[in-house]
Design a protein that fits this description.
8 helices; 4-stranded antiparallel β-sheet; about 15% strand; single chain
Length: about 250
């Protein structure tokens, strides 16, 4: 069943698909980050942080989490003519937002993956999640071995860097979990050193300084027509490696 799931995920356009258990992750770093006020005005992050760390909050019967990564290139996700179209100046728009809305694309593809599982196990319970769901997807995906969490706090995969978005299916099927992979950042500090607002420190992000936060989460409070920031990803050595299908 696991081989079928992984192969189907690749056939649907996901660059990686790995499995982890539905066990909770430690809330320690999240609660510390919130306690320091680094979440800024994202008050939703401070609501029930422990529940964000437990997939069973979203599906009480959960036994496994299927973690999927969808890579994107310079034009963002290319998916028909579904573009977001925020600005004519692409240099002001982060790559993930230049193409199709990944929330729509990833949720649609996860739905197709869940349906493929349902054809083999009709009574399966499956909850599809993108980053709007209250779950710590990066930490869970790191546990599944999709990548490691770099100093820029983004997930890095040794084959296709950090140019990807995540999606998950929480399910009541018990699947063999994959192992995490080694953090290969070593002594590299490029993302920290090049952050234009010094928002990165000790593998932690101060959202209050981050351009992405200021131009996306706090868009109504800024005059900038920018949307996001890619500097920390652009300087990452692993982003010199390009996956099949990415620009």
């Amino acid at each position: 069943m696991k081989k079928h799931i992984v192969q189907t995920a690749h056939d649907l356009g996901f660059a990686a698909c790995r499995i982890t258990t539905a066990d909770p992750v430690s809330p320690e770093r999240l609660t510390s980050w919130i306690g320091e006020g680094r979440h800024g005005a994202m008050r939703y992050m401070a609501r029930n942080p422990e529940k964000r760390c437990d997939p069973k909050t979203l599906l009480p019967e959960a036994r496994s989490v299927i973690c999927c990564a969808m890579a994107y290139g310079d034009e963002g996700l290319v998916f028909g003519d579904r573009t977001i179209g925020r600005s004519n100046d692409r240099t002001k728009i982060a790559r993930f937002a230049r193409g199709a809305d990944y929330h729509v694309v990833v949720r649609e593809k996860l739905g197709e993956l869940a349906e493929a599982i349902r054809k083999r196990i009709p009574d399966v319970k499956a909850k599809c999640c993108v980053d709007t769901s209250p779950i710590l997807e990066k930490v869970i995906a790191a546990r599944a071995g999709i990548g490691w969490i770099g100093r820029h706090t983004l997930l890095v995969n040794p084959e296709f860097g950090s140019w990807f978005v995540l999606g998950e299916i929480i399910t009541d099927i018990e699947l063999e979990p994959d192992e995490p992979i080694k953090n290969l950042c070593d002594a590299c500090m490029k993302c920290v050193d090049h952050c234009p607002t010094n928002a990165l420190e000790h593998a932690s992000l101060d959202a209050r300084k981050c351009i992405s936060y200021l131009t996306i989460e706090c868009k109504d409070k800024t005059d900038s027509d920018s949307y996001g920031c890619d500097v920390c990803q652009e300087v990452c050595p692993y982003n010199a490696v390009k996956s099949e299908g990415a620009d």
